[in-house]
Amino acid sequence: MSRAVVSFTGFRDRVLVNRLASLVHWMGGSVRRRLDADVTHLVAYRCAGEKVRKAALTSTNITTMNASWIESAWGLRTSNPFFDSTEVEFVNKHRAKVFQSCCIFFVGFPVHSQTLKELRDLVREHNGSLAKSLCDERLTHVIVSDEWTATPGSPVLKDISDLIVNSANAAVQEFSTDVAQQLCSELREVSFRVPVLRLDWFWKSLQCTYICH
């Protein structure tokens, strides 16, 4: 890793960052706190944030990486002491992906629909994970179908409809009033903890995948 100058972003676990930085140093690389002109690789916990955007726009072409890049290079040091971790094929294998470290739950899609299957497949393809429910402790984002509408007359649904629902569209999934109210109550509660987003956010995130390259 002697040709790598690494910076980190998005990590809350300082112990992990210190460990990764130590591995970089032990493999001959350098670490920078700031994203300066010398940085060649940005290791990101999640493919988002100011440093990631800056890395994508810089003229020096800083590559945004998953932490697995460092871990894998460290694992190969014994079997191949002359291994170059900046080799293109190895770098491409460990590039950061747009949904890494995200745990997503979809609301308002028919359970067995092809659309929901495709959305879930895209999450996995881009290194994300799927929450089991709105109560899943891993949950980071809730995505609501634009075609899912609230039950008319429900005050709970009315309060959050601007956030999650395009009321001009027809519903694709029908709920009883009690179930719909319970679901929206759960959405209201979870919105204090994680973003509750329209499907448009999902597609725009995929369109912006270039920021992780």
Automatic annotation (TrEMBL):
Domain BRCT: 1-70, 94-207
InterPro entries per UniProt: BRCT_dom, BRCT_dom_sf, Ect2
SUPFAM superfamilies: BRCT domain
GO biological process: mitotic cytokinesis; nervous system development; regulation of cytokinesis, actomyosin contractile ring assembly
Cellular compartments per GO CC: cell cortex; nucleus
Gene Ontology molecular function: any one: GTPase activator activity
Pfam families: PTCB-BRCT
Superkingdom to which the source organism belongs: Eukaryota
Record-given protein name: BRCT domain-containing protein
Natural source organism: Dibothriocephalus latus
